[in-house]
Amino acid sequence: MNARTPDWHVAAAAMQADGRMFIGGKRLHAQAGETFDCLSPIDGRKLGAVARGRTADIDAAVASARSAFEDGRWAKKAPAVRKKVLQRFSEKILAARDELALLETLDMGKPIQYSLAVDVGAVARTIAWYAEAVDKIYDEIAPTAHTALALITREPMGVIGAVVPWNYPMIMAGWKLGPALAAGNSVVLKPSEKSPLTALRLAEIAVEAGLPEGVFNVVPGYGHEAGEALALHMDVDAIGFTGSTRVGRKMLEYAGRSNLKRVYNELGGKSAFVVFEDYADIARAAKTVAGSMFFNQGESCNAPSRVFVHESVADEFLAVVAAEAPKYQPGDPLSGKAAMGAIVDAVQLQTVLGYIDAGHREGARMLTGGKQVRAETGGFFVEPTVFEGVTNQMKIAREEIFGPVMSVIRFKTEDEAVAMANDSTYGLQASVWSHNIDRAHRVARALHAGTVHVNQYDEDDMTVPFGGFKQSGNGRDKSLHAFDKYTELKTTWIRIDGQ
Ligand code: NAD
Fold it and tell me: Which atom of ligand 1 sits closest to the CA of residue 402?
């Protein structure tokens, strides 16, 4: 597909998805020959049969990654050489943008224009950013006595297991692959069983770009099968995990039960969006929260799903939110015009509808939305939904819904707002809206979150770390800090005689 504006329905009908694994540079069936059906959440149609990887397949992928690492075909290449290959990888991702975007949209349901403009661009930028960084990072010499030299160097760890979710399949994979590959590691990637297709294509594209075979392997499969086998593997040096807090906990257990591999968890969120009465443009705050909450069908770890509004401006704020939310009504994800697409599958649809029920049962007042729509398409669509009159103790305020459901809570004082915002097991992101400079800084400092936004929500860049406090995780994706996760720090002492 090379035309700039393809007919996405025609392209979708012609799409033949290859669901075989990618190990040692080759497409392979699972050793047991098993597959599972990959269904599109847009209309329920089968996109292809995907290899159901199990322990034997993970063993083969890890062995391939290990031998690629040990013979130095990638790890011992000069950083400038790795840079060139990864830059080519990034360029080829962009060249395949239509195909990758279509696969992403068909596989997980997001609108095609966002797959094109956000997801493909972001994964290409991520790979290029780490490629460009890797030949500009210096190691250290410690300020020791003259009789010795102490070198402090960073070395690639070896084999990295990457386990990623379905909400931004390519971007999450890219956040692991960029720093892990640039640093010289080999990778075994286990994509979500709900969205495995783009990861498999990324691996093929990487080899076409010159990445040596075996350095980047992909084993699709279920979490409790392929995912568990990877996380328990004795020859995997680190796990870069993005997903739920429930599974993040298991990742730590698997490491404890196996080889104490490093575990970097990027987990769930219930991010607080705190609007004070002194913020001059309440409508702007309300429009921002609607846009951020309903982007990607609300299936974003950092969605601002708990909104705290000062009681004196709450009615004004809610009137704008109620007018904005319907603008995100779900539509046909292939139309190029839908503001929201489909929920990833029938299970997640029921989870979201279950939380909407819980909101009603616990006495919150639904301002707008609340229903499944477009059921006649065979796909899974939910209206953008806003509850107000929520308390911070309600289920819809405490648990991550991972769907288009916003909870609005009124507050009276700054102390109360901060206490409620911090009263969460999560700590991924937060936002404070105030034109009082002291208050803005004070509250930004007081909020327990890996990222705090002031008077905006969507600012983002590869240069800044992304990750959470508390049960939102421990590692940080993005920025140069991500290299810390995929490298070991080594000290080398050299004696210098005759001084
Ligand atoms: P999930 O935890 O169910 O699955 C994530 C991955 O783990 C999948 O590949 C899955 O197959 C695998 N997995 C599941 N059970 C496993 C097991 N027992 N052993 C090994 N692997 C297993 O999460 P999900 O539903 O795919 O994604 C949604 C979650 O991801 C949300 O909680 C969201 O907040 C989180 N998320 C976090 C970030 C972040 O950067 N902090 C970014 C995106 C998504």
Answer: 31
